[in-house]
Prior knowledge:
Alpha-Beta Plaits; 5-stranded mixed β-sheet; single chain; 2 domains; 3 helices; 180 residues; 41% helix; 5 strands
Amino acid sequence: MDLPASSPELVRPWRTATLVATAIAGVELVLLVVVGIVLLGKSLAPHVHAAAAHHALATAPAVASDPAPATTPKRSHPERVAATLSRGHTQVIVLNGNGVQGAAAQTAALVKARGYAVKQVGNAPRTGYARTMIMYRPGFRSEAVRFGRDLGTGAVSPLDGMTTAQLHGAHLVLIIGASR
Length: 180
């Protein structure tokens, strides 16, 4: 019985096609993993930023919110010791920083019920704030502390990421986070 001799030329095209298909599949797998990481990273980014901010607040020294030590130059606007503005004259901007629809409007109603003047209601520049925070213009720390007590939140800090001009005359900014 005569069998045809197998030639090496018939085997090579099959092997070459297999190697090319495997290489293409490997490149596709790498691309899919990269796309998955990018898409997952975008959806997790607000949570990661919120956790980092929360961690930074939790690990920051307690003296960071106290007035500057005597060795630093004096501020041109010294902070008041006692609240001098009444609640009705303290103007507040309420911003939604947690992404829940209607949270700013609902909180603005609570702020008005506490006797404060709401200057503006809107969305914060970003969402994902872990905690509700109160920021104040220079010289209005005592009003911010009183406002925080009235609302049951104690996170009070000077303006951060906003200028006094962006407040349009308001004294305080309330950014609503995921928790108080």
